[in-house]
Amino acid sequence: MSCLPSDAAVITQTVNALLLRALALLQTPLSALTLHQALNAADQALATASHFHRFDLEPRAHLYRGHVLRAWGRWRAAHAAYVRAASVRGQGFSGTDIRSLTGDCLAMIRFEKEREARLRRAHSAVKEGRRGSKVVRFSDQQRAPVVIHDDRGEDDEGTRSDSSSSEMHLILDCNGEVVGRRESLPDLRTVRGRSVCRSPTT
Fold first, then answer.
1. Which of 43, 53, 60, 132 is 20 to 30 A from 147, alpha carbon to alpha carbon?
2. Total domains in the fold of the chain
3. Residue ranges making up the domain that contains 176
4. Model confidence over 78-112: pLDDT tens digits?
5. 42 with 61: CB under 8 angstroms?
6. Measured between alpha carbons, how far is 39 from 25 in angstroms, rounded to an integer?
7. What are φ and ψ of residue 113, in 5° steps?
8. Does pLDDT of 202 surpass 50?
9. Do 35 and 70 touch, CB atoms closer than 8 A?
């Protein structure tokens, strides 16, 4: 579609006005609404330039789309927009450093990938830790230790040094399975738990 000189001037003014609106919105406190409005203005500018085959204006629209998407934190989309804006020309655009803009986007893309990988590793470690954790369970109501007394007669093995030698405490995992035993427990006045399990020794 060819344009008369007067029409071309109107199209240029329309595209530039839309891009200035996008830029003005980026100068305000950013919110989801203002970012949507700014992107919509840049999209309209791009659509207008494309419709009238104004290939000299399209890179400008891509550049401003990149600015909006960058402010939004949408780094991949911003990088793609800046790449399409590489041929931007005209007054006010000659100093645009596309290489720096795309480089910033690539750096943030790498940062986000590394952060996501760290989060996945941390999540996996937490899951593995929960699966393999061993806990001692105590009662909220009963603070006394779970004690297993040796019911064998005192004359089975001769005399024993004291009563503590016949006490045993079970250690349970999160599934309630016995995973160990010990002869003493921490001070139960500061320990709270969910249940008490009693089991006779063999």
1. 132
2. 2
3. 135-190
4. 999 999 999 888 766 777 889 999 999 999 999 99
5. yes
6. 9
7. -65, -45
8. no
9. no
